[in-house]
Amino acid sequence: MIRVLLVDDQPLVRSGFRALLDLEEDIEVVAEAGDGMEGLALAREHLPDIALVDVQMPVLDGIETTRRIAADPDLAGVHVVILTNYGMDEYVFHALRAGAAGFLVKDILPDDFLHAVRVAARGDALLAPSITRRLIDQYVTQPLATGAGAGLEELTNRERETVALVARGLSNDAIADRLVISPLTAKTHINRAMAKLHARDRAQLVVLAYESGLVTPRNR
User: Fewer Cβ close by (within 10 Å): the C or N end of the chain?
Assistant: First the structure.
């Protein structure tokens, strides 16, 4: 059972998402919150698998809520998915840097929304290749963060190749095809790289890959 926490200051939005999720046998909405501070408290109380968090909220916004969840060792199993009204805005990349597993636009089709929740629950990043490139091209313009790239020297050549392909938005199957290995081996390389780089999930691997210079944005 996938346990979901809804965090959005608009009751109508929460009701719409809940109505969809409640119809699914493998998904349970465990709590709802109207702001980030309440959401953080409910995350600690219910330990959901997924926290769907609006990016703009009163009291505590989605980015800071994400940052606090990611920094709390007791919430290590909570995957934050940012909800936004726009396909691209200034908050999305900052949310990924804060520890979000991905983001969804609120006008997403119902079937795509349900699929995305299940993808996030598996620990996969919700980042389509085209969206990833646009995010990086627009927002990786600041100097490298302190410690960015730390641990890259510990990666094997194959692990570095794998991380680079994750950053390009490839799935495990696509990475396996590209490197002529099995999907299970690709997943193993990814998991080992995540452990060495202290990344929570694939989304953070994407951020680290670009911030460290392992991968460079296209069409700069």
Answer: C
